[in-house]
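Hi there. Long-time user, first ticket. I'm pasting a complex I've been working with (about 840 residues overall). I'd like to know whether the download I got is complete or cut off, because the file seemed smaller than I expected. Thanks.
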Amino acid sequence: VRPIVTADILAVGSELLTPHRVDTNSLFLTGRLNDLGIAVRMKSAIRDNPRELTAALTNALSNADLIVTTGGLGPTADDLTREAVADLLGLELVERPDVLAVIQERFARRGAAMPAINRRQAMAPEGAIVLPNPNGTAPGLLLEQGDRMVVLLPGPPREMQPMFDGWVVPRLADRTRGRRLHRRVLKVTGRSESQVEEVAEPIYAAAGTAETPVETTILASPGQIELHLSSAGDDGQTIGRVLDEAVARLAEALGDVVFSVDGRSIEEVVGDLLHRRGWRVAVAESCTGGALMARLTDVPGASAWVLGGVVAYANEVKIAELGVPAGLIERHGAVSEETAGAMAEGVRARLHAEIGVSITGIAGPGGGSPEKPVGTVVVAVTTGAGTSVRRFWFPGEREVVRRFSAMAALDMLRRALSTS
Amino acid sequence: VRPIVTADILAVGSELLTPHRVDTNSLFLTGRLNDLGIAVRMKSAIRDNPRELTAALTNALSNADLIVTTGGLGPTADDLTREAVADLLGLELVERPDVLAVIQERFARRGAAMPAINRRQAMAPEGAIVLPNPNGTAPGLLLEQGDRMVVLLPGPPREMQPMFDGWVVPRLADRTRGRRLHRRVLKVTGRSESQVEEVAEPIYAAAGTAETPVETTILASPGQIELHLSSAGDDGQTIGRVLDEAVARLAEALGDVVFSVDGRSIEEVVGDLLHRRGWRVAVAESCTGGALMARLTDVPGASAWVLGGVVAYANEVKIAELGVPAGLIERHGAVSEETAGAMAEGVRARLHAEIGVSITGIAGPGGGSPEKPVGTVVVAVTTGAGTSVRRFWFPGEREVVRRFSAMAALDMLRRALSTS
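Hi, the file is complete. Here it is re-exported in full:
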């Protein structure tokens, strides 16, 4: 049989065609399939409608080597995936006594009799491999016909994911002849997407056409740019070396704006730097209103290196709780290098921390002025050895300004901890 | 011509078939189409591949009244949507001098000559209506053939959204004969999805089969359940009355766990309650690490009712900054009713606030014990008139426990502000 190189993903369920639901299953599946060197050709969400389901399956079957469906395996009349696939492949649905026994036992364990409608979930197209579901009543199904494979999975992620990893991945690995996708991620802060691209493009363009080609994708979010490098093949050692070389070249060209080449987030990098020194950080925030602290403490174990902080939204709190002199705020304003420095020093002293960080700014929509427009943010970091202060201007809405600000503060912490 | 009642959405772009990207355009479009009483039948993401694009368009054209595509209108060789649609509909692509002039002027304004490749963006199938794009170079296209409508939109949301609202919605409104979707949202906290369903199901089941049927969807997130009620038709007054009656019945049956029937978030509800009293809140957080403050200050204008707070991650900060007696923590533990109460009272007194709130708990993964397992959280709210304290146990991972905790604290604030 031919190796499997392309897949279509079909999410079945009317709730996925509302304005509120995203099909996240397809992201998980795409990641796993890519890891096996399989490209996703198309993904669709369709309603619980037999005619539409059949049309979508027909289109998928005529093109992709592999079709993965999620949803529509429940016990109700709405759940039609089993029937539609059997029909299209010209297979008869037969009741599987082994599957029926498992479902009945599942209900018995909870002291209940199996409702009659659940009997449908024991039906499988002839020749199908049944995939056990320890987390629900709907078993999965796997069919191989000639070169093609069709996999039917339940919709709930906690049922679908272990089933895919436990039963489908090993089966697919047999059909990909050792081919795997290998990847590396470089994370950058303090540069825009186009600035990163300008420096990185010549390097990844060359890597893209080398003997072992490396594919590069750029992902941007407020304050952070990621370069995803990947290469597929069966010679893992060579590919690993080629990827590491590309990472090294990019890291050298981009310089110290690269904060991670090993998958860690910036809050993990900062946490590790603090942990290594045995230091603890104290935080004073104004416009970010707790968002910086929330990120620092997002990392499990953060209590070892985060002491705490003060959210000084009102000026009176900056004065009373952080010891910022009232006259300083009057003279320079709450959003100023002077106030930011005093906030960082105040919180460091009050909480007896080795390092203090502060953010003060105007997140908007109100509060801007011609000299200090919305998006003006000042960040300060202070240690016993000295204080560094920077003024930024971040474009965008309130939430975006807040995300940029927290990121800038994390990066200034990283730099202070790397050098001082 | 027939009215438009169903639509297919097609997102074009290879980047949408990676594990990292979600097609958010389709959520915006689904919301807008539903508002016009148009149901989305299917949505797909496809690669920049002419054969696959044609197959997907063919499938859509044979079924839906309306097809909306996003992406693939750029100037490069990868951008194929224009050509594929013209081809399928048997229309010739012609250069539109008016469109070309607009694109050239756009470049001229930035002092640049139009690159030759952008000339492609001035091509349109004969008979197409060109949709202006003030935010980019790619104009949209709208084609009507018999009963069917095909709309091609650019991919970037800031180009796509104003184009859809400004040019496509009015055109669609002509084709829906006054039919509109009307909706209401009820928001609940402090109840699980199944608890809400048990109470609400008889009411929404009856509403679903009434003369003017109301459709109900339940959406659950940590600490919050939403009931979305909707009904489509051309008699807005009757539908509005029917929806309001259903909302009133549900709100009465569910009681005071309903915190919003007008779309407001709980932080907006709390902010409005504080604002109305002229009160200001002070916050003391431990395990949530700033997440409660971040939510309270997410609301524009929050500086009027949020004074600030202390994130007391370490016990020494609880003692020094919040005035919690060291002996109290020793006797009862940092996660206890006593400590939570002292934290809330301490922050209220220190910041001179009218109301204080505190959270202390074990978010995990470490730190649990048999008496206080991971997920144990205590919340306190205090005013001059008294203090209320509650202990919770929230299931789930660190991030989920933190979200549940912030939600519980916001709800206790709401209750204290509504009654005291």
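A couple of notes from our side: Chain A touches chain B through 71 residues (CB under 8 Å). Residues 235 and 328 of chain A are 63 Å apart (CA to CA).
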